[in-house]
Amino acid sequence: MAAAAALNGGLVCSFHGSWGTSMYGDDYYSLVDSLPRHVTVGNGKPSRSPPSMKNVNEGKGLFAPVVVITRNIIGKKRFNQLRGKAIALHSQVITEFCKAIGADAKQRQGLIRLAKKNGERLGFLA
């Protein structure tokens, strides 16, 4: 309070503890339990699950069964090569379409993202 008096009554603080000892027992453990799983208490380093490139619509969509059967027949490596070529050709078609109508690069990128979302929903990326 001497510091507050030195400020001529400007700041008054009623806190008389320390931040490190202000939480013990059940309050501490309920706080720790409420944290998201990727946050850890202890060593200070957050631990996150590795990023997943898995399709959220795996096995869903109208064409998913055909895609899965084809992948099983021709093999995953060959299937991914063909899928990559198909995606590249489709991107080229979108690019040529954008050139023909005079769309800019941002609109082109938006159309490519839309095509990817539609492909996921329909099951082409299963």
TrEMBL record:
A GO MF label: electron transfer activity
Gene Ontology biological process terms in this record: photosynthetic electron transport in photosystem I; response to high light intensity
InterPro entries in the record: PGR5
One GO term describing the cellular component: chloroplast
Protein name from the UniProt record: Proton gradient regulation 5
